[in-house]
Batch of 2 targets.
Target 1
Amino acid sequence: MALQVSGKTIETDEEGYLADRNQWSMEAAAAIAVSEGINITESHWEVVNFLREYYEEYQIAPAVRVLTKAIGKKLGPDKGNSKYLYELFPYGPAKQACKIAGLPKPTGCV
Amino acid sequence: MSEEMSESGVVKKFMYVNRKAPYGTIYALESLEVVLIAAAFDQDVSLAFIDDGVYQVAKGQDTKSIGVKNFSSTYRALDDYDINKLYVQKESMEARGLTDKDFLVPVEIKTAAELSALMEQQDVLLSF
Amino acid sequence: MLHIVNKSPFERNSLESCLKHAVKGSAILLIEDGIYAALKGTQATARVQAAMQDYTVYVLQADVDARGMKGRVLEGVKPVDYAGFVDLATNHNAVQSWL
């Protein structure tokens, strides 16, 4: 599969995750969000950026339980809960937000 | 065998026994992935590093030049997964000229005898 | 002859076998997990130091760095990069790998 971003083609795997993490840009993120049916807002970016930082630091995309806890620690309890995160990313915060963040599918997600 | 109930069922003691150096073989990375996946099951997990396995948690790993992911950073995320029992076997560490200051995460140094006692308490041992 | 060892001396006897068969004056290159033999203060140190009387010992720096062992390499062991690896291979009449 592939994604068209400002005239360039970006390769993805069959589930829509970027084949090469280095191809990520904010434009690519927005394009992936559209294909996921998400209208990307500041609140989405907050989670996406958090995930990118987490990956940079630990070289993994966190499991949803870990993500929820870590978001709570960083952005407060009103955001560190699954209701809030599932409202932003209805098909699973770890899965969908990771895809938009250009990260691999979280380890343990099937 | 001590079994207590958690909200999701019976909690068992799982120990991952790591005996291989990182990068030269796939064992270390595979073990770490299984640990992360299995963390979802809320069990009582510990990691033991024995023989060349002690090298997995050695400080200062920099894989830029070999073009391989530096997964040593991921050991620092284990605490987020509520995994914080990491044991380094003392004799293995010393045979390799390492000290308790040479590790990238907090670890407990255990002698072979201490570790074997811990192993006896486990319900499941997974070897890598 | 260039001998290449890529296994840890604590886990396999590849280095031992290599040292048993390599003639005096040979070059020995330690790569991958083989680099653990080139370090100070280990149970393999004395063995490798003794071997350095008879052989020139090289170590692939990229593999040392990857494993966090920078600064622990024995005095007298010569670090090489990938280009140096190629030079070693082409400058010797034959290469033997001890897997």
Target 2
Amino acid sequence: MATLTTQRGPDRSSTPTPARTTVRQRLSRLDVAVSPYLYITPFFLVFLLVGLVPLAYTVWVSLHRWTLGGPDPEFLGLDNYVRLLGDEVFWNAVGNTVAIFVISSSTQIAAALWIAVLLDSRIRARTTFRMGVLLPYVTSLVAVGVIFSNLFSDENGLVNAVIEGLGLDPVSWHRDQLPGWIAVATMVNWRWTGYNALIFLAAMQAIPRDLYESATIDGAGAWNRFRHVTLPMVRGTVIFVVITSSIGAMQLFTEPMLFTPGPGGNNGGPSRQYQTVVMLMFQESFSNMKLGYGATIAVALLVIILVIALMNFLLSRLIASDSVAPSRRRLRRRAEGGATR
Amino acid sequence: MNRTSRTFATVAGIAGLALVLAACGDDADSSSSADGDPSGSAEPEEVTLSVATFGTFGYEEAGLFEEYEQLNPHVTIEAIPPLDGGPYHEDLFTKLAAGGGLADVVAFEEGHIGRVLQQADKFVDLGADGPDTDGRWLDWKTSRATTPDGRLIGYGTDIGPLAICYNKELFAAAGLPTEPEEVAGLFTTWEDYFSAGRDYVAATGKPWFDSSTQMFNAMVNQLPEGFTNEDNEIIVDSNPAIREVWDQVTTAIEEGQSAKLAAWSPEWNQGFANGGFATQACPSWMLGVIEGAAGPDNAGTWAVADVFPDGGGNWGGAWLGVPLESDAREEAVALAAWLTAPEQQIKAFNSAGTFPSQVDALNSPDLLESTNEYFGQEVGSLFAARAEANGEAQHKGPFDGAIQENASSPALQAVEGGTSAEDGWQQFLDETARIVE
């Protein structure tokens, strides 16, 4: 109402409006127009301060030869980026990161789905088990690293003891590439499988039970119920988990670092067998003091993550439109069926 | 990394606390002077000093912090839990570059001194602002922490005169002598040492030394020039002595002499206790490490021989400095001076084997007569003799720490993992070039 009167605007003419209404009106108009922005400002201010400014500063640093605690930075333009594109060590780290992601995600999602199905079925002490799978997630990452590093010890580790017990040759977990990837992926999985299982469980519980009943009546066994009911119904959640874990995997650092022999090592194996991008960034920045080149790697990592996020976005839209279409059709069919009946 | 951020939080917390305490102290002072009581102002202000060290310095073990607090009731010492050397120095240099978060007294190690000296302007000049330092330390110990323009940025704590430690039981089992005097005769030169290793491997099938990186570091430390010359030029590929050391060590790897354990890893620690290797390059501070790793059950198993192949050498040792950013500089300098004074150096030596760097301490009967119960030997006179043989510590450049950690050590580990010595050498050179760039 207030806005209406102002729009009609007797005050546009030369006659002044009574001050009483104007102040109130203006305040209330201001309130409506500005307040929401004011309320969300703190977030953006904080984001600007701790997110955007450091990001822009990183880009700025990446344009220099910037030695940690060294002489004044020297402007290089894009030289660092040119070097990065031809740097075998960087591409090796990218390869390691992607490989560890593929190994960990594929096994992790399969295991999490299986655990979720078990937790979704009627078992005793369900809540205990459901809380139990989350336990690895609350363990200190450093403790995980130390223990797994011992389990996968080349010389006297439990895993090698078992392998030798089976009559096979011991594996050089800390020195060879594929075993190193597997060991690091195992650490990641130990921590995240239970967490993802709970997310899948939540999605599974939202599946209408009558779907399972109909499937059972139609003669579907446990595998077919899982394959044709559960899996399609949790597809969106699987995509969500893949997206979040892919972004997390690109930033993988603590596990492989703790796995590197000798404390504080960022080399990821004697010849960078499992050095991830973030480890290389850390090594260049703080161990080799090349802050400029480290910042370049950080920016490259940001670009990689943005590309992956974009791919994920497109993929999930593609799959979402795929999965929405049949369900609409089904609804329509059901409605039509109802009408004929 | 959690540990680092926790340390940072602790430091920040302490700094905040120190500010509050300082403010309270000011209040008390001004009120007492208002009363016209001159004796009130003589009472020193309450102050909390944080001390950051790495590895084992022996201060905590010898109860030196409590002792200082008793002697100086106004001082509270906050000892920051020590990290291992590598992460500690990364943390130190990051905080130096960031200009905040440092403790009031910080330690830095010999391998990293070149890099600390590059930032000497961030430290208190102890030569000018502290107690007189003339002639108190071994000359080279002081000169290595002095900038070209004469600023002294660290009080020497310990030095690392090198000897050889060995496992008596394994020596006995292999038919080798076990008495330190006899063992010393086996290791006159590196050729002798590695040939004894060859025989040991042939006799027992077990590895002779712990890790090729430890041997390589000790041997390089012994050279007149290491990775960097006096002009701070990197000479890894042009210094033939380094290639010679590389060849000797990699040959020993091929002969099965190395236990291939990454130094400071859990497996390496276990190796001291379960007979994983027979010998170990032993700077004096290694005694504390061995005692901790081998544990009380193995007391008397390890011994140290008064010898180091081809003469002496120095490995490690540290300094205590006071960052300019400290809120309590004078108090921090006083604490650092006290901790590095001869009496305290001897106490630290008795607790952790950190060998004194002060001349008075080196000549003191307390040191020369000191025995190490765990080793069952008079180690004081032994290492004093090693220190005499050792001469000066080598010049370290700003990149030496990084070259050792990210170039030579991984390359040697690669050779231990099956890479050829020639490919490993190339990896060493490539990685060095990457660090120096």
